[in-house]
Automatic annotation (TrEMBL):
GO MF term set: ATP binding; hydrolase activity; RNA binding; RNA helicase activity
Domain Helicase C-terminal, residue spans: 205-407
Entry keyword annotation includes ATP-binding: yes
Name of this protein: RNA helicase
The family this protein is said to belong to: Belongs to the DEAD box helicase family. DEAH subfamily.
Database matches in PANTHER family: ATP-DEPENDENT RNA HELICASE (PTHR18934), ATP-DEPENDENT RNA HELICASE DHX37-RELATED (PTHR18934:SF99)
Length: 640
């Protein structure tokens, strides 16, 4: 370990950690923010012989955390990344024969468990950030419990919250180690009254901080990408206006009108304009390309102030240097799946107390910090203590399929800390049966086995397999590769004018799937991530004894086959038009649904009689996304 780590609290717990692993196969470490768990525990284990002839796996819920931790720990050990320290995330990995510590996303390790349920390549499994209760982490904990039949494996579970009762109950006989955080003082500030417009409240807080404080970057927590883009635009406009207004060479810099625009809604307080620093605005959310996410770790330009606009991706694991102020909206986006309607709602909800404390802790990693909570003390008191486990509120069809592949005959009986409801699991089984992945008696089919090998949600992997029958594999590979990445192509023109122009050029009259195909084929600068996804999917498909054409056909006949393929595979996601109301009725859900405004089929003109869609989400209305025209009889023919 490096000398810089000598004063981290986890170092003083080293003996307790090693002693605990001698006594038990399972060790649970609760350590507050800044204790050094994520970076030093794997090194402590390796340096004390726990890697043996195998590898220590360290899981993270997010790709950016797995990669950044691997890079940081490799620097600590003065080793080249990919040597002693490696990483593996979806579509990107760097490790070799000498790798002894491998940082992975929990999804990557789960895919390994599908091939090897006892994870025999690993001597230690470290589950980090277990407090987040992500669906993948929760399933991995269940897999780890199965792995305990291997007497030579150790399981280390790390949580940033002190409430670990659920983990202790789930792993009887586990040894627990509590480690204090190296937390500097945090000053908290609350609103006196509730604020409806949290974006405006965040904007005002950022501007006030930039006009009243001398140094320190600002980390802002917002619910989602849309909010980040909205605030980004407002800050850019204000930044330009301030630069113009306080530019000493500008003859009109002292005009009252411009000053009023600068200080609008900032109150009557006198500000020292000499404190103003040019804002470097950096977004951080899961759909952002990895190279763009990495920008948050770059040093701030001298004389500037970095403003990081983030979702809850920045709550834990990541230490963003230079942050002294946190502005917390107190909100997050959560998916809620309705097993009756088969519709997933993406809603904005209050975060929990544990997450709010994690957010605040980001301000005090390097010294005293301040947290500005854009909610009242009363609102904080009413928040739930811990997050709602993701596995209890989302579609679990992919989990059901993964468990079947691992040899779990009845996934309803698989042990989980907080299992999903029976209705969610039965809905998953019904979905997989309709996708031909399992039989009516719950046995895996050959199609189901193939679907599980493809790193895609079941609905998409089924389309890919159907493309073999319809002889449109190459085209469908490109479409799904585009669907598997952040589809900026479907952003409104006001948000991304260049993407909107590209969409107009690639637009296909039969809908979004063929528009995505056109975009991929027409533009050499199709997203690199899409090309990477396509390459990996192609490798998966090469295991089938089929001939995959490199060239794609632009003939109407192939367009016809592609739409037929999507309809046959995803017939459950078909809907027919109620022409009197310009709305649709779902074939299976029987719900009233609308084409999302982002679709190329949305507009004032005549609507198609029947459509197939990739997913439906509920906000103010039930909206269908990635929509294509089909013949009404296609859905009727495939209904079962």
């Amino acid at each position: 370990m490096s000398k810089n780590s000598d004063d981290l609290p986890i170092v003083y717990a080293k003996d307790r950690i090693l002693e605990g692993l001698k006594k038990s196969q399972v060790l649970i470490i609760s350590g507050e923010t800044g204790s050094g768990k994520s970076t030093l525990v794997p090194l402590i284990l390796h340096e004390n012989g726990f890697s043996g002839n195998n590898i220590i796996a360290v899981t993270q819920p997010r790709r950016v955390a797995a990669i950044s931790l691997a890079k940081y720990v490799s620097l600590m050990t003065d080793d080249t990344l990919g040597g002693l320290i490696g990483f593996a995330v979806r579509f990107h990995s760097k490790f070799g024969r000498k790798t002894k510590i491998k940082f992975v996303t929990d999804g990557v390790l789960l895919r390994e468990a599908m091939e090897d349920p006892l994870l025999s390549n690993y001597s230690v499994i470290v589950i980090d950030e277990a407090h987040e209760r992500s669906i993948r982490s929760d399933v991995l904990l269940g897999v780890c419990k199965l792995c305990l039949e291997r007497r030579n494996i150790k399981i280390v579970i790390m949580s940033a919250t002190l409430d670990i009762r659920g983990l202790v109950d789930f792993f009887p006989g586990a040894v627990t180690v509590s480690v204090p955080g190296r937390q500097h003082p945090i000053s908290f500030y609350y609103l006196q009254e509730p604020q409806e417009d949290y974006i405006e409240a965040a904007l005002i807080t950022i501007l006030q901080l930039n006009l009243t404080t001398k140094n320190g970057d600002i980390l802002v927590f917002l619910p989602g990408q849309d909010d980040i883009e909205a605030l980004h635009g407002l800050l850019n406009a204000k930044n330009a206006l301030v630069t113009k207004t306080f530019n000493k060479k500008n003859k009109h810099a002292d005009s009252e009108r411009e000053k009023k625009l600068v200080f609008a809604k900032l109150g009557n307080k006198e500000f020292n304009t000499n404190l103003w620093k040019t804002l470097e605005i950096t977004p951080l959310y899961a759909a952002l390309p990895l190279e763009d996410q990495a920008l948050v770790f770059q040093p701030t330009t001298k004389g500037h102030r970095k403003i990081i606009l983030a979702t809850n991706i920045a709550e834990s694991s990541l230490t963003i240097p230079g942050v002294k102020y946190v502005v917390d909206s107190g909100l997050m986006k959560q998916k809620i799946f309705n097993s009756s309607s088969k519709v997933e709602s993406l809603i904005i909800v209050d975060t929990c107390k544990a997450a709010a404390q994690q957010r605040a802790g980001r301000a005090a990693r390097e010294g005293p910090g301040c947290c500005y909570r854009l909610y009242t003390r009363e609102a904080f008191a009413k928040m739930r203590k811990q997050p709602l486990p993701e596995i209890q509120c989302t579609n679990v069809a992919h989990v059901y399929l993964e468990l079947k592949i691992m040899g779990i005959d009845n996934p309803l009986e698989f042990e989980l800390i907080d299992p999903p409801s029976k209705s969610l699991m039965l809905c998953a089984a019904m979905t997989l049966h309709r996708l031909d992945a399992i039989t009516a008696t719950g046995d895996l089919t050959d199609i189901g086995k193939c679907m599980a090998k493809i790193p895609l949600p079941p609905m998409l992997s089924r389309i890919l397999l159907a493309s073999i029958e319809f002889e449109c594999i190459s085209e469908v590979l490109s479409i799904i590769a585009m669907m598997s990445t952040d589809m900026a192509l479907f952003q409104p023109e006001s948000k991304d004018p260049s993407a909107a122009r590209c969409r107009r050029n690639a637009q296909h009259p039969h809908g979004d799937h063929l528009t995505l195909l056109n975009f991929y084929n027409l533009y050499n600068d199709a997203p690199d991530k899409s090309k990477e996804v396509r390459r990996q999917l192609l490798d998966c498909m090469q295991s089938h004894p089929i001939n995959i054409k490199n060239a794609t056909s632009q003939s109407p006949e192939n367009w016809f086959k592609i739409r037929q393929c999507i309809c046959k595979a995803n017939w459950m996601n078909t809907a027919t038009l109620d022409s009197n109301k310009r709305q649709y009725k779902g074939l299976c859900s029987n719900e009233q649904m609308y084409i999302h405004p982002s679709s190329v089929l949305h507009g004032p003109g005549p609507l198609p009689q029947a459509i197939v869609y990739s997913e439906c989400t509920s906000t103010k209305k039930m909206y269908m996304h990635t929509v294509s025209v089909i013949a009404p009889e296609w859905a009727a023919q495939t209904k079962r």
